[in-house]
Amino acid sequence: MGIVKISEQMHENLRVASNALSRSINAQAEHWMRIGMLTELHPNLDHHQICRLLVRAEQSGGLDLNAALQDTPVTTGAHS
Q1: Which of 3, 11, 18, 48 has the largest count of CB atoms under 10 Å?
Q2: For residue 74, what is the DSSP state?
C-alpha cells in the first residue's frame, strides 16, 4: 500500500462523494481509479458496461489488470 498525493479540491470532492455514497474516502478514491483505468483500457464501453465488467471481475475473483489487458486489442499503428 502506498500514499497518493492529491489536491485539496480532489480530496474535498472525494469527501463529498464518499459521504453521499456511503463509502470511505479510500474506497471512493479506489472506485474512481478503477473506473478511470477501465475507461482508458476500454474507451468503447460506457459507464454501465464498465460497471458490469467490474461485477463480472468480482465474481471471478477480483479485477486483474493482466486479464483486463488480455481483452483489449493492442494496436501499434503500423500498417500491413
Answers
A1: 18
A2: P
Number of structural domains in the chain:
1
Give the range of the structural domain holding residue 27, as residue numbers without chain letter: 8-70
Cell 478511470 found at: 36
- Whether residue 15 lies inside any domain: the answer is yes
| pLDDT confidence bin for 74, thresholds 50/70/90 | very low
- Mean pLDDT is lowest, of 26-35, 38-47, 58-67, for 58-67
CA 22, 25, 30, 36 torsion: positive or negative?
A: positive
For the residues 50-65, what does the mean pLDDT come to?
A: 84
52 in a domain, yes or no? yes
**Phi and psi, residue 30, nearest 5°:** -65, -40
Q: Spell out the residues 6+ positions from residue 76 whose beta carbon is closer than 8 angstroms to its own.
A: none
Residue 70 pLDDT level (bands cut at 50, 70, 90): low
